[in-house]
Design a protein that fits this description.
Blueprint: E1 26-27, E2 33-34, E3 42-51, H1 55-66, E4 71-74, H2 83-86, E5 91-92, H3 101-112, E6 116-117, E7 122-124, H4 126-139, E8 143-145, E9 149-156, E10 159-167, E11 170-181, H5 187-191, E12 196-198, E13 213-216, H6 220-229, E14 242-244, E15 249-254, H7 256-264, E16 275-281, E17 286-289, H8 302-326, E18 334-338, E19 348-350, H9 358-362, E20 370-378, H10 398-401, E21 406-413, E22 425-427, H11 436-442, H12 445-465, H13 474-483, H14 490-494
Bound molecules: flavin-adenine dinucleotide (FAD).
GO molecular function: 4 iron, 4 sulfur cluster binding; metal ion binding; oxidoreductase activity
Organism: Candidatus Segetimicrobium genomatis
Biased composition (Basic and acidic residues): 388-397
Length: 512
């Protein structure tokens, strides 16, 4: 990993990256361009620098700002939410009743604005999500820098001092006493030299990528009638096949036989085994389709990302044609829009001071250094619906065709946010230190939010105390989390597998 050593030159006055400098570089004999050393203006110098404005980064910045740290959030896209908005998702996979602190507050603000529906998970409107998170950050005094790609790290003596970013203003150094890497892919930690695992430990295979798109003009009542009349052709899991039109909760996973018919006529690609829709707007005839799949691609490789974008766009056309031709209610439907980015489920997980496993989750393991608690429904020892080997939803896929998930509550220790071998850095969100099977649970937005809040409070307190994150007072972090309203005792009160979601008591009723 290349780390920039001492290349910072603060320009106190004058052109802060306004001029575009040409690079005086040469191409050496091995076909590589040799970049000369150059001066990079310091555009910001803060207490806590948060890289990545997905939901983990939003929560980290919010918690850091509320804990009193001067906080900067850096995001490469023009809006916040990451996979949760740009990849066109529409639900937080965590029961409303299990959320607390800033997470519950986000849910409540969205609900009050007509942008979310609470339940066994929380369905939301991505556009209100983008605006509400910006508002919450502004109120917490967090500075947000959009359209800024982090491209390098600044490391002194195994401690991260900041990052180098590229944007329309040029190349900039952004300094922070503590940095939270919430880039999803662990870009900062990997560049800084932290060890990581990509994909499944045995063979490095990662879960498939998906381009989500929306279809309009669907006659939902006719669709629902059809699904009710053919229960054998759909997942038996009530959370996967959910037909609650009154509450705008529609999720349908299956159409297994119809897909086989279309494949026999060459109308769908051979690795397609199902069609899947979900929605917050069924009354307006709009459904989200989550059924494109590309396997064997790596979200940290630009060629693979390009291939996935191209392949899934062609799959989208096939799926829309299939729906119009085979599924009652879709006859007059059309593609309304597609996500602005391919959805990446799995890439790097940074190796931290603790590696959390699925066994920890199933055993309901509790930690002295707990900083996050999350809950979601899974099938134990499965792949969370997305096996890296392909054939998802195929006849052999018991998880899709037979199993019914149940709720798991689990704690996440601070050590899983602490990368090995590098100081000044925490990770939050999808890239925390868990194994491939624990990632089935923790890759969801609930854990991304909870670890974001945990990392944000810890980063702010470490910056204030002037100590590296690994030496922060963990009791002070836990007390800081509680003062933000975070319920760290959910697992202790309810155990790892409560019967039903409604039995998850509200954090307002907590006894601590
Ligand atoms: C198709 C699909 C469906 C899913 N469905 C659900 C679901 O229904 N419910 C659920 O809860 N979860 C779902 N998930 C999982 C979940 O959405 C993500 O794992 C979660 O949102 C990750 O949050 P994060 O903040 O860790 O990362 P991300 O959301 O990936 O955020 C990372 C952010 O960092 C930015 N970034 C990355 N690199 C850089 C860089 N170098 N410089 C600057 N910025 C950078 C990105 O633009 C992004 O905004 C789904 C995922 C996919 C792909």
């Amino acid at each position: 990993m290349r780390a920039q050593q001492g290349l910072i030159n603060a320009f106190q006055n004058g052109s802060r990256g306004e001029g575009i400098q040409a690079m005086a570089a040469g191409v050496d004999t091995s076909g590589r361009v040799v970049e000369p050393a150059r001066e990079v203006p310091v555009a910001h110098d803060v207490d806590v620098l948060v890289v990545g404005g997905g939901i983990a980064g939003v929560m980290a910045a919010l918690a850091s700002g509320r804990t009193g740290a001067r906080t900067l959030l850096v995001e490469r896209f023009g809006s916040l939410g990451g996979a949760g908005t740009a990849a066109m998702m529409n639900l937080f996979y965590v029961p409303y009743a299990a959320a607390s602190g800033p997470v519950r507050e986000l849910f409540d603000r969205l609900i009050a604005a007509g942008g979310a529906i609470p339940g066994e998970f929380v369905v939301y409107d991505p556009e209100l999500y983008k605006v509400t998170t910006l508002d919450m950050l502004a109120e917490a005094g967090v500075k947000v820098l959009l359209h800024t790609l982090v491209s390098d790290v600044i490391v002194h003596s195994s401690a991260l001092r900041g990052i180098v970013a590229e944007n329309k203003s040029g190349r900039q150094a952004l300094l922070g006493r503590v940095t939270v890497d919430s880039s999803g892919d662990g870009d900062v930690a990997a560049r800084a030299g932290a060890p990581y695992i990509k994909g499944r430990e045995a063979d490095g295979k990662m879960r498939p990528m998906t381009l989500i798109f929306r279809m309009g003009g669907v006659e939902v009542p006719r669709l629902v009638e059809y699904v009710r009349a053919h229960p054998g052709d759909f997942s038996p899991d009530p959370l996967q096949t959910m037909l609650d039109v009154d509450h705008q909760m529609i999720r349908i996973f299956g159409f297994f036989n119809l897909v086989e018919q279309a494949k026999a006529r060459g109308e769908l690609w051979p690795e397609c085994y199902y069609f899947r829709v979900e929605s917050v707007l069924p009354e307006r005839g709009v459904l989200t389709v989550n059924a494109t799949r590309v396997y064997g691609v790596d979200g940290t490789n630009a060629e693979d990302l390009s291939r996935a974008e191209i392949e899934t766009r062609h799959q989208m056309l096939q799926l829309a044609g299939f729906a119009r031709e085979y599924i009652p209610g879709f006859e007059r439907s059309f593609i309304l829009d597609s996500a602005s980015t391919i959805g990446v489920r799995e890439t790097r997980r940074i190796r931290g001071e603790y590696l959390m496993t699925e066994d920890d989750i199933l055993a309901g393991r509790r930690y002295d250094d707990v900083v996050a608690v999350d809950a979601n429904q899974q099938n134990a020892r499965q792949q969370g619906g997305h096996p890296p080997d392909g054939k998802e939803g195929g006849p052999q896929d018991r998880e899709a065709r037979e199993l019914i998930a149940r709720l798991y509550i689990y704690e996440i220790p601070y050590r899983s946010l602490l990368p090995q071998g590098i100081d000044g850095l925490l990770v939050a969100g999808r890239c925390i230190s868990v194994d491939h099977h624990a990632d089935v649970y923790t890759r969801n937005q609930g854990s991304a939010m909870a670890t974001g809040v945990g990392a944000g409070v810890a980063a702010a307190l470490a910056a204030r105390a002037g100590v590296p994150p690994r030496r922060v007072d963990i009791r002070a972090v836990q007390s800081g989390l509680r003062s933000l309203g975070v319920d760290l005792d959910l697992l202790r009160r309810l155990g790892p597998v409560p019967d039903r979601f409604d039995s998850v008591s509200s954090p307002q009723q907590q006894d601590n």
